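sorry for the late reply, my laptop died twice this morning and i had to redo everyting from scratch. anyway the thing you sent over, i finally got around to it. pasting the sequence first so we're on the same page, its 458 residues, then the predicted structure underneath. double check i copied it right bc i was rushing
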Amino acid sequence: MPEPAAPSPAALGPASAGAMPPEAPRAPPPEIVGWRWAPVWVLAYVALLFAPGFAEAVLSLGALTMLVKLALGRMRTGPRLLSDAAWALTSALFAAYWLPELISAIDAVDPARALREAAVDLRYLPFLWLVAAAVASTRGRRVTFGGLALILALWIADALLQALSGTSESPLFRAIDSAKHALSGHGMCSAAELALADRLGGVLGPCNLKLGQVIASFSPFLLYAAGRRYGLGGWLGATALTGVVVVLAGSRASWITFALVLLLSGWRLLGWKKLLALFACGLLALVVLDRTSTQVHERLVRTAHIVSADMSGIDDALSGRARIWRAAGCMIAQHPINGVGARGFREAFPACDPMPGVNTSWGYGPALHAHQLILEVLSETGAFGLLMWLAGAALAWRAWVFADVQARDRARPAMVALAVTVFPLNTHLAFYSTFWGGLTLLLAALYAGSLLAQPRSE
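ok and here's the structure:
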């Protein structure tokens, strides 16, 4: 039988005619799943802020655990823990904070301390990766953000009970103090510290009067959670209770911080007209607290001294900060490039004190830090430090601008919390201290991890 004729190239199609076969579809990138145990470390760190030593132990152990997890996976699990963009932004924000520390140690007032601070703060980098991994998945964000909201709600309820009882210790702090007595034979605070307490301490206690700043900075997690779960009524209720505690906690810087939180979170929910009405109600509540709370009245009276024409009245209104800021200006002029060294403010203060030997609101002795972000960065880390902080802020803002709508929605509580914490037109705690520096970097990692949790959708 004759063999069948071979098919023509046209009949075989383009592949048989010499054309390249179609490209196989690319495999989808590995799913970003984060780490299911990472939220536990984050919530434990925040919940233990009343005992800074234990909180620091949790931070250090969490950092070591993250390094071990990465080493065991030989870094292959990295893309599943975080997206590439989240890895990059978290590391860049850490570098913007840490590199000024390192460079400031070159000719610091106390080089040994500056180098020690820089070396110790290296632990923040793996901990920030852990924090970002905690919010990389939907479940992780729900547990982490929801847990932060619950912790804050508990602290606010505890502080309100303290305010109603009129005692110097809140119920939670009293229980913690009793446990400390049973374990070590002494309490959390000394008698002198108890005598100096002049405001609501809450769970942090009368010897660590930072409750207002902490609650104001972390309040977006509670307000957004209340708004999502209970609508407008829930947001307004959480706002009212949080605002009362922030005012009674006495820190005027936290009043500004909380006002910014209401501005950034309320305008989308209420609109401008209702938001202005809310601020009017807040001023009315402040008048009521002025009449009913001695501490609030004293704060407002001191604030009124700022209209005084003399420097002493302004300095009294600012609780001695005018003197501190003048000293910071002296340090900046003498060390413009890399500052006096991270945490070197107290050593450099006597040489720059404009009023040596004069007693002020903090008593005798040097000021510990500049009480203002820009002045702290410039005086302790110089122009190089400020440029690095500005570069970090620019990267964080660029990530927000180029993120899609879904990414912005999931990162909004962390974004608001971070923005109000570093708002430059305010007074601040020390950003290069262990307490406030750790919390600020935590918020930065929560922002980066939640905003860039998944690759950008097209």
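Residues 9-18 have pLDDT under 50 and may be disordered.
thats about all i looked at so far, will dig more tmrw
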